[in-house]
Specification:
It holds the Pfam family Na_Ala_symp. By secondary structure, this protein is an all-alpha fold. The protein is built from 20 helices and 2 strands. The termini are far apart.
Length: 483
């Protein structure tokens, strides 16, 4: 039954939603992800600046990468190639390209409608922009529930399954004991809340990402002469033009979109939860940097995994096996048995930070539903740890099917909300673009220019310090910002 429901939702509904609405946002915004691509690097540099008492934009980026860069980048890519052939990689790229615009708008809106809690920390996400932007709290509650179920429970079970079975494949470790060990380590971090989670992400995310990219690039460089031909195979296979993979075009599209969304999460409504906690001068700045996060996740990390598999010589059409073992054996085929060990260690780091991120998403939305209830929060932490252990020993097909169904429902609610709030997103984008056109290097958001929006004036004060324009240029006018 799970497979039948999953085939319909993720095989048809998800593709239309992600690619269709992502393309709509891209065209209507005049290709915002391309127009601001070089600007992303400048915003990334500025994100390194810290804010007293608040999480910096860089910390929010590391948190979002903690979630985006997880089992999907290793196991997910392996499964996509196994079931969809090389062409699935192309459709992962397409999903990421249009997904960058979806992520841009959802994270910008997450920042715009964020709220300051009793502890002085920012909280936000789809539930908040649905309640305060669409004035539909009931729909925000549904979104919060779906996020809680999808990330707090389903995805955590999947991530735990990936790491315990990887360690079993590489070292022979019993999945029961590694599941218990993983739950204990995560429980120690959960207790510290968002600030401890952010500190752990700050430390582990750059290390795990750079180490993984370094090793996969080493393998790619060793066989660099084959890369152009393999890229050609990927493109031809995506349209059924390669005879060896001609029968996989349908699977290539479905698996490319499904696993692409699972890897980069663009449009699911997850990233806005962590994007909202950052202290930034303008909501759009966080939208820009989160679009950059999608680019890093798919075009850099997922592509490295795909080329590692396809260039290794281990993968052949009709390969049968799970994505984790495929990636491990592909690396081992090039560098020796230590490749399996490296993938297991890398996956362990990927999963650990990803679960921390998923836990926070669940907690944030649980607080939206029930408020600051300590007993409920402790119950949630306990249940998450139990489900992490469950995922460590459960069947992979069951875990993936459950996660795919809840992910598709989540995308449906979030993307419809983004569509309804698209005009608001375009207004703040114009405000940002007008200030940049006037020579202002760091645009500042003035909530007094948007009196019709239900904003938290503590998070976005009226008449903040005026931004300084470059010499010879005047600040953008109020009328232009309000268009």
């Amino acid at each position: 039954m799970l497979e039948v429901i999953n085939d319909f939702l993720s095989g048809k509904v998800l593709i239309v939603l992600i690619v269709g609405l992502g393309s709509y946002f891209t065209i209507r915004s005049r290709f915002v992800q391309f127009r601001h691509f070089l600007h992303m690097f400048a915003v990334f540099r500025d994100s390194l600046k810290s804010s007293a008492g608040q999480l910096s934009s860089f910390q929010a980026l590391m948190l979002s990468l903690a979630g985006r860069v997880g089992a999907g980048n290793i196991a997910g890519v392996g499964i996509a190639v196994t079931l969809g052939g090389p062409g699935a990689v192309f459709w992962m790229w397409v999903t990421a390209l249009v997904g960058m615009s979806s992520s841009f708008f959802e994270c910008s809106l997450g920042q715009l409608y964020k709220r300051c809690d009793a502890e002085g920390q920012f909280r936000g996400g789809p539930s908040y922009y649905i309640q305060h932007g669409l004035q539909k709290r009931w729909l925000g509650m549904i979104m919060a529930f779906l996020l809680l179920i999808t990330f707090g429970f389903a995805f955590n079970g999947l991530q735990a399954h990936a790491v315990t079975h990887s360690l079993n494949n590489a070292f022979g470790f019993d999945t029961t004991y590694t599941g218990i060990g993983l739950a204990v380590l995560l429980g120690l971090v959960f207790i510290g809340g968002i600030k401890r989670i952010a500190k752990v992400a700050d430390l582990l995310v750059p290390v795990k990402t750079l180490a993984y990219i370094g090793v996969t690039l080493y393998v790619i460089v060793l066989q660099f002469d084959q890369v152009p031909a393999m890229l050609t195979t990927i493109v031809k296979s995506a349209f059924g033009l390669d005879q060896a993979f001609g029968g996989l075009i349908g699977s290539a599209i479905v698996m490319g979109v499904k696993r692409g969304v699972f890897a980069n999460e663009a449009g699911l409504g997850s990233a806005p939860n962590v994007a909202a906690v950052a202290s930034v001068e303008h909501p759009v700045a966080q939208g820009v940097i989160q679009a950059f996060s999608v680019f890093l996740d798919t075009f850099l990390i997922c592509t490295c995994t795909a080329l590692l598999i396809l260039l290794s010589g281990f993968y052949t059409p009709g390969f049968e096996g799970d994505g984790i073992a495929l990636t491990q054996n592909s690396l081992a085929a090039v560098v020796g048995d230590w490749g399996r060990i490296f993938i297991s260690v890398a996956l362990s780091l990927f999963v650990f930070t990803s679960i921390l991120y998923n836990y926070y998403l669940g907690e944030n939305n649980l607080r939206f539903m029930v408020g600051e209830n300590r007993k409920v929060l402790i119950g949630y932490r306990t249940l998450v740890l139990v489900l992490i252990f469950w995922g460590a020993i459960e069947n992979l097909g069951t875990v993936f099917a459950f996660a795919d169904i809840t992910m598709t429902l989540l995308a449906f609610v979030n993307l419809i909300a983004l569509f309804l709030l698209f005009k608001v997103g375009m207004r703040i984008l114009r405000d940002y673009d007008d200030q940049r056109s006037a020579g202002i290097k760091v645009p500042v958001f003035d909530s007094s220019k948007f009196p019709d929006l239900d904003l938290d004036r503590k998070a976005w004060p009226a008449n903040p310090s005026a931004p300084v324009a470059a010499p010879g240029k005047a600040p953008a006018g109020v009328a232009a910002a309000q268009r």
